[in-house]
Model the fold of this input.
Amino acid sequence: MEQNEKIKWSQFTILVTLFTIGTSVLLAPTLVAQEAKQDAWIVTIIGVILGYPLLFLYNKIASSFAGRDFFTYVTDLLGTWPGKIISLLLFIYCVFLSSLLIRQVAHFAVTQSFVETPKEAIISFFVLIVIVGGRYGIETLARTGEILFPWVFFLLFILLIALIPELKTERLFPMFEEGVKPLFLGTFVYMGIPYFELFLFLILIPYIKQTGKTEKTGKAFYIGMTLGGIVLIIITLYALLTLGAEATARNQFPSYVMAKTISIANIIERIESFLAAIWFVTIFMKSALTFYCSTLCLANVFNLKDKKFLMVPLGFVLVFLTEYITPNIAHFSEFVLNTWTLYTGTYAILLPLLLITVAAFKKRNERRVKHAREGKN
Done:
């Protein structure tokens, strides 16, 4: 880890917020509505609630190894080769996630914004931006987040105010029409994007400036996730109130379609570009952070001190994967609905539990050895 790169608690909060919003601001409403129908907004609330135990687990690990590099304490706990294997698996995960994120950017751009632009050009351009962000490092990404953060919420505020005349509360009823099973199915999908993905911040927490108060890390984590979660609750609720459950589930980007309905006195119209701007900002931050984590993981596998030279080759890998990772958007949606939560949950739940369990056993054994030595003396 580069010790000269450090970020503030407030910057960490902003990064978590933007990461949480990420792609979900466009995708979450349709994915959840496909399962939970008009109860999709309830699922987004459940998602925030279930996110807190996850963050408690991550904060427990972070506080137990405060100031230590993620890869260092994983190796100390599990051993050198298991640590390398986990780093390699995390690298694969990060590259896979990055390619999925960029795939969504390309699909949105060629279908909604830049319909005459070749998909390959959009992919290459966005990967280039992500590489530049990664090369400048976590500190620059955090400062970029600070600059963009208020603009994201300002544009979101304008959109929400402008949409008020289009809201119809009757579109939320009947509630629990098909019982609670759709809520469970919707929650299963929703936890995979974005809450399970937040475990990647275990890699980034050591970059926070240490002031001797590790509880600030937890507070920053909780605030960031809560802010991002509230945004997703509001966006999903607005999509249902504006379009209805059926249209929300049917459209690929319901929140973008929702923004198209804005018409104030036939003067203020077509401001869906505001939502597109919000999405491009949040997905850039999420993609750049994920890509940055991938370089950290790969550098640890090969014991490399300088990770920057890895970024351009990895960029070419991203371009290739993004082109071929999913043949079409229907396949992508099916993968997210049926597979992604299980895949990312392996890292989000099982890996932290493994680390906590091994750490507890080692601590217990150390106490036994200490007591045995004291008994002999």
Notes: The beta strands are 263-264, 268-269. The domain at 9-376 is CATH 1.20.1740.10 (Amino acid/polyamine transporter I). Residues 329-376 form the longest helix (48 residues). The first strand starts at residue 263 and ends at 264.
